[in-house]
Amino acid sequence: NAGVTQTPKFRILKIGQSMTLQCAQDMNHNYMYWYRQDPGMGLKLIYYSVGAGITDKGEVPNGYNVSRSTTEDFPLRLELAAPSQTSVYFCASSYVEWAHTGELFFGEGSRLTVL
Amino acid sequence: QKEVEQNSGPLSVPEGAIASLNCTYSDRGSQSFFWYRQYSGKSPELIMFIYSNGDKEDGRFTAQLNKASQYVSLLIRDSQPSDSATYLCAAPTGANNLFFGTGTRLTVIP
Question: Is residue B71 within 8 Å of B22, Cβ to Cβ?
Answer without folding.
Answer: yes
